[in-house]
Structure prediction request, 645 residues.
Amino acid sequence: MKFAGAAWKYGDDVNTDVIFPGKYTYTLTDLSQFASHALEDLDPDFAKQVQVGDIIVGGKNFGCGSSREQAAVCIKLAGVPVIVARSFARIFFRNCVNNGVLPVVCPEAVDAVEKGEAIEVDVAACIVRTPRGEFAFPPLSPSVAAILEAGGLIKMLRRKLGTEHLPMPEVKFAGE
Amino acid sequence: MAKTLFENIWDAHVVAQEPESPAVLYIDLHLIHEVTSPQAFDGLRKRGIKVRRPDRTFGTLDHGIPTTDRSLPIVDELAARQITIMERNCAENGIQLYGIKTGADKQGIVHVIGPELGLTQPGMTIVCGDSHTATHGAFGSLGFGIGTSEVEMVLSTQCLLQRKPKTCNVRIDGALKKGVTAKDIILGIIAKYGVGGGTGLVYEYTGTAIRTMTMEERMTVCNMSIEGGSRAGLIAPDETTFNFVAGREFAPKGAEWDKKLAWWKTLPSDAEAQYDVTYSLDADALEPMITYGTNPGMGMNITERIPDPDKIADLSQRKALEKALSYMGLQPNQQLLGHKVDMVFIGSCTNSRISDLREAAALLKGRKVAEGVRVLVVPGSTPIKKQAEAEGLDQIFRAAGAEWREAGCSACIAMNGDQLEPGQYGISTSNRNFEGRQGKGGRTFLASPLTAAASAVTGVVTDARVLTN
Prediction:
């Protein structure tokens, strides 16, 4: 599997409140509105200009802050399949994996790409290709790979429990 | 082999460990609130399954619930709907809810009521769809904040996937000076080691300054472990811990207490136990702390001047500071002392317990809030509110000109209308100063309840020691 797109580059310690402001967690009930608020307080241009397949590139401790899963979900719904960062905050990392967004830790690649440049993440080869070279990242752990491959934690659990033939619930984010 | 407190708890809860995979951890206590659980219950409902351990799952209303009079209908339609959904989810699954219609006398912020009810006990694994679950680490229990997919997983399996973190001994020796508090310790740690200093680590706070703390102070320290980037914060249980837990509603009783107590006493790290990393802070040298930027690591001694980005070598850090100062409307080398504030918030899972309210009230007694400053005092739980009222603290706050509210998260997350207006400055006893956190365009200074109360009186950022000495 390969992901190729334009890089949206940000600094260290990007927090979940600037990715998806807390006030929207229940004022927005329709998933279709999530993407239009993604990264709203970090980069107002992002939601307007992001293209499906674009890749977010971040610094250290990406996604620090709240456990609210909407931060990962809004990035997914904005069409971003993968985030490359120097490091991730743990809860956000798991929220990404659990929603089928690939978090890649590759500090060298972060240094080698500027905003808007083309970047490719080759999952099978564990390589990030940038205009300034190719950089390896550690292989995904089997469990992370299995969750991502299934499309998220709940889908993976359904597969393991043998309930995947049952209809997948359409979960909306404000309860109903 | 010598083991740390963390390893003792971890090893007691591993259900399965496949090679190169996260461990499957058993969860003793699952706390839920109205904002991060509804989607998880929807998932269960549509899969046709029930909560596995409703008896180990407890709910509260805190994030979106209004902190104004609750006998009136809730004006905010969405908040009202969220609360109705929570009530239904708990009722359908046989989960105790501390809310408005049920358990209202014990309602409060999830990380305040867990310990208050005796649900939080040493040696437990505790999760909640809330990043400040680290608070419970004050009892020597392992608390992880989790996302909503994980809430659904824990509701259905009572287990969590978790990669084993490394350990960090955060040693804090010495005695705090008068006017310096537990909040200043944790702000000091985060300022020193950064908001990413704890990445991949579990912090265990040790040292003489920690040992002499009350449980409420320990909770304040552990609460902000997540702001330091660590996965959890821990403090070894001791007599202070056992005395706090004893006699509470859900605390073990009789022979069960003796059995648990014997186990709890085995939990602290062995003297020879090895940590992966060691950090330290000198409590003797610590001064009241305040943040000037847009992450909790951008903090300083309240009498210092704001750092100059030009003097920061690291490009990424320099840019972050420039951006933060621009958002905050502040200049390099400027002092924060004397800077105007529009709102003062005393509350949140960091600093809303009775001792915090007593400290703030002692300072506000016989004084008035400065003109044009809005002061919100929001107790962490309904029992704390009642306790404060029994002690007459509410009268002190009201007489000073502060608003005395019902228990909840309130202006910490600004979901319920308690918030800053664009461009306004707030001094807040909460835990996050991120852009927009307390209202779009709002600017937050994080500090202790003492500093917040002193600043309420003067209308500008104030070192409380100036008023109390």
Q: What stands out?
A: Helices of chain A lie at 16-19, 24-27, 44-49, 70-77, 90-98, 107-111, 142-150, 153-161.
